[in-house]
Structure formats: structure tokens, C-alpha cells
Write a structure and sequence with these properties.
This protein has helices at 8-140, 147-162. The protein is mainly α and 163 residues long.
């Protein structure tokens, strides 16, 4: 028996065994292998589909995030405008209140100045009257030490001035 040319019986047995092994593999082996390959292909396809969905969701989230940021920016702008408006309003109210207070203080000062002026005028008139009496006393050389004498003289002068 040589290795290059096998015997006829060996060929028959080898063919028979090959047929049996092929039949067994075809009946039970190949379906299992093709099923596992198909399952693996399905898993890969499912993973690819899920990855695409996840990518799509991420794109949607990115656009939603951009929309939320834009909305927040608009809200921030609105709030800043409201704050500026409130600030301006408060400043205007403070100015008006300060103006009112200044007006009141000015009015009070005017009233006080008028009262002081009137008081000063009364004091000046009194001094002028006393000076006049003093001058008149010296002119008349009459003693006006007593209250009665000075009152009479002042009355007489007032009467003369009226007439």
C-alpha cells in the first residue's frame, strides 16, 4: 500500500465515512453554524440600528439644547430689560421724591426767612422808634424817663405823622 495510490477499499471506506460525516454535519452542524452566524448578523444589524437611533437622539438633543439655550438667552435679555426699566423707574421716583423734599425745604426756608425778616423789621422799627424818642428827648430837652411820658410823646408823633 502506497501513500500516493490508495487501495479501492480504503477509497470506499473513506467515501462512506466522508458521506456520513457530511450528512451529520449537513443535518445538525451546518444549521447550527448558519443559525449562529445569522444570530450574530442580526445582533450586529440591531446594534447598528440602535447606534443610528442613539445618534439621531443625540442630534435631536443637540437641537433641543440649542433651542433651550436660545430661549434662556431671550429670557435673560428680557429680565435684564425689566431690571433696567425697574432701575430707571426707581431712579425717577427717587428724583421726584428728592425734588419734592427740596421744594418743601425751600418753602420752609422761605417761610422762615420771611419770619426772620419780619422779626428783624420789627426790631429795626423798635430801634428806630427808640432812637427817635431819644433824639426827640434831646431836642425837646424834656425828660422822658418815665414810661408814661415816652408813650405820650410817641402817640403825639404818630398823630402828627397821620395828619
Amino acid at each position: 500500500m502506497s501513500l500516493i495510490t490508495p487501495d479501492f477499499g480504503l477509497l470506499v471506506w473513506m467515501t462512506l465515512i466522508f458521506g456520513i460525516v457530511f450528512f451529520v454535519l449537513a443535518k445538525w452542524g451546518f444549521p447550527m453554524i448558519t443559525d449562529s452566524i445569522q444570530k450574530r448578523a442580526d445582533r450586529i444589524n440591531e446594534s447598528i440600528r440602535q447606534a443610528k437611533e442613539a445618534e439621531e437622539r443625540l442630534r435631536n438633543l443637540a437641537s433641543e439644547q440649542a433651542a433651550i439655550i436660545e430661549e434662556a438667552s431671550k429670557e435673560q435679555t428680557r429680565i435684564l430689560k425689566e431690571a433696567a426699566s425697574a432701575r430707571d423707574k426707581i431712579i425717577e421716583q427717587a428724583k421726584a421724591q428728592a425734588y419734592d423734599e427740596a421744594s418743601k425745604i425751600l418753602d420752609q426756608a422761605r417761610v422762615q426767612i420771611a419770619a426772620e425778616k419780619e422779626s428783624a423789621m420789627r426790631d429795626v422799627r423798635k430801634e428806630v422808634a427808640l432812637l427817635s424818642v431819644s433824639v426827640a428827648e434831646k431836642v425837646l430837652r424834656k425828660d422822658l424817663d418815665s414810661e408814661k411820658n415816652s408813650s405820650e410823646l410817641v402817640s403825639r408823633f404818630v398823630d402828627e405823622l397821620r395828619s
